Amino acid sequence: SELPVNTVFFLFLIPIHYHSHPLPIACSLLKPWSSTTHATHNMEQISGPPAKTGTFYQTPRSHPWRPTMGYEAVEVTPLHEQPITNQLVASSYSPSGMCSDPVTFPNLVTGFERNPQHAARAALYTRYTPNEWTTSNVCTYADADKNRNYSEKVRSEAVRLMRETDEKTSQGQRDAARRIGERITDITFWRNELTTELEKLIAESAQLTDTKRNVQKALQDLEPPLHIAQECLYHRESRKGIELVHDHVEKSLLVEVDNLRASQEKLSQLLAKITKQLADCRAAQHSLEDDISHKESALGIDSICHQLNNYSRGINYYGGIEKYDPTVSTPGTWSGSSSTRINNSHSERSKSCQLRSDAESLINAVATSVWDCWSNTNNAFNNRASEMLEAKSKMQLHLHKTQQEIFDVEKHIELLRKAINDKSNPMKVAQTRLEARAHRPGIEIDNAHLRLVEEVCTIQD
Predict the structure, then answer these.
(1) Alpha-carbon distance 312 to 299, whole Å?
(2) Mind telling me which PANTHER family this protein's record contains (predicted)?
(3) Distance of CA 236 to the CA centre of its chain
């Protein structure tokens, strides 16, 4: 409705000489909306070098199999209006009121001459008889019938060929759509499998991360008991003399220190394994996410391709695309790659689960062993403290008895001193008696003298 009345459009072939060789170039129709919306054509030249005829309409994106080309839109300028006449117009026969002169035709016998003599002379030179003329017409009719029959046969063959090619094209398009649908089903299946496995792997990685934090916490919790045990051993070196005994307490402390250090070593090795397993899980997770991203992209492309039909917008010619093969795998290797990634993720999850179980068992075993060593050490301390208290009590008791005995001895010493002092007067009496009896006249040794001497000797003893 927007076109001028006299505008005429043609689709034609223009022979253009390129390097002295004729080259047929297809020119597209000038669409009525191209002048208003500036829509471009996305067709590529099928063969031959690009035609240097004007501005090209570029394809929306470049392709690795063919350089970007285009076609020139050509508009045929309508002819100017001309009167329907020629130079063979007899102005005497033109009626009044007619805008143009009538067309006159030449004489068939004499050409442009109207002299009857010429017609009579031409009749003397006829070459064929009426029978020949009739026979010629019959042959012409027969030839026309033959050509029409052949043309009808060709038309029938053309109709059959068109129907056959249409059916084959439709069947091929339906089969391609069915194959794309099957491909979409396969991609959806593997994408769901990969997504499910990815969720399981992420959950397993989160649990393994919690286990790693628990192991780190257990490793940190072993530092205070080890420090305490070492401090106990250090302070027990301050004992004096005979108290430096290699007793059960010291043995328990040494066992506890060895157990704590061995537990730290085991937990450190387990922590290194968990860290490595987390790295492996992250690698498997990245592989799954990369595969899922590719599956999502391929699913989107195949979904769009599955929805395309003959009336879809954006369909174009892409010359040589059927000869370009960008594929890098086969359906077997494609599904095998996804299956391998899923199996790898499943293996990593199994290792992670086993590692979590080992970590839990090791943490419980370490906690039990540390608790047992701590209990044994505490029991040894309690027993040793009881022994020390008992020994101290006995020592204090003996000390008290000894001190009492010393007091008693000192008291008896004083009594002995008093007893010795008490013997002085009897000694004086006995010696005085002996001295006095020594002044007797006619001293004789009698029993009294002997007894006094014995008494003095006894008192001296």
Answers:
(1) 19
(2) TEKTIN
(3) 57
**Residue linked to tokens 């989160």:** 206
| Domain over 122-309+335-401 is classified CATH 3.10.350 | no
| CB proximity list for 76: less than 8 A, separation 6 or greater | 8, 9, 10
For the entire predicted model, the pTM comes to 0.59
Tell me what pLDDT residue 49 has: 41
What pLDDT is attached to residue 17?
A: 40
For residue 391, what are the CA distances in angstroms to 106, 120, 247? Answer: 162, 176, 15
Q: Are 360 and 270 in contact (CB under 8 A)?
A: no
Q: Cβ(73)–Cβ(57) under 8 Å?
A: yes
C-alpha 92/C-alpha 85 separation (Å) is 15
- Per-residue pLDDT, 102: 54
pLDDT for 276 equals: 95
Which pair of structure tokens corresponds to residue 273?
């394994």
Give the pLDDT of residue 327.
82
292 contact partners, CB below 8 Å, separation of at least 6: 191, 194, 195, 198
Distance CA 287, CA 194 (A): 10
Q: Give the residue extent of every domain in the chain.
A: 122-309+335-401, 402-460
Tokens linked to 133: 């003329």
* Residues in Cβ contact with 380 at an 8 Å cutoff, skipping those fewer than 6 apart: 247, 248, 249, 251, 252
Query: If the chain, 461 residues long, is cut into consecutive pieces of 10 residues, what is the mean pLDDT of each piece?
Result: 42 39 36 36 41 41 48 49 47 54 51 50 67 94 96 96 94 94 94 95 94 94 93 89 86 93 94 95 95 94 93 89 85 91 94 94 93 92 92 94 95 93 91 89 83 92 91
Exposed (0-12), middle (13-18) or buried (19+): which is 230, by Cβ within 10 Å?
middle
Spatial separation of the C-alpha atoms in residues 234 and 254, rounded to whole Å: 11
Burial 10-31 (b: 16+ CB within 10 A, else e): eeeeeeeeeeeeeeebebeeee
Give the pLDDT confidence score for residue 135 in this predicted structure.
95
**The pLDDT value given to residue 100:** 55
Asked if residues 455 and 428 have their Cβ atoms less than 8 Å apart, the reply is no
